[in-house]
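pinned: reference chain
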Amino acid sequence: RDVKPENMLLGDNGEAILTDFGIAVLNQESRQHNKQDVVGTAPYMAPEQIKGFPRRASDQYALAVVAYEWLCGERPFTGDRFEQIVFQHIHIQPPSLRIKQPELTQQIEAVVLKALAKDPEARYATILEFARALEQNSQGSQNVTLSNAITAELPPEKTPSLTPTIPAIPPITPIS
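pinned: its structure tokens
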């Protein structure tokens, strides 16, 4: 529930490592979820997360904000106040990536904008599906290349786990 560049590290083998599970731990420890408990970093929060109903698709939205920022150098929604930013996440469509970076293909823009859909059901079924779509649509592009930082080469028999394993800390199961 707090995917952002500051919480991502690049491992020795080029894999992305998500850090700072403080929000997830606090939410797991809480026995009662109050709709008013909005937790996260405003520039990366999904509309449903802002409304108090985070789910797995909320992390995909946040990763799409990171990808948007990575591709054009700025976040899709900005403002001086929390209220300005969350209003945009809920009500305003993200600006075109191609206006900011004309060399990007329509396909790359479409992939990122799908992951930034206001309705979580309109996004990719999984974050891995989003990462693969982004990687497939960037093949051959001189301007966009993806490393294992977004998706590692996995043997077909293995599927990624959504539960991180952190030494000396019990595994954390994402809350949907």
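why pinned: Confidence is low (pLDDT under 50) at residues 23-37, 142-173. Helices lie at 22-29, 47-50, 56-72, 82-91, 97-100, 106-115, 127-138.
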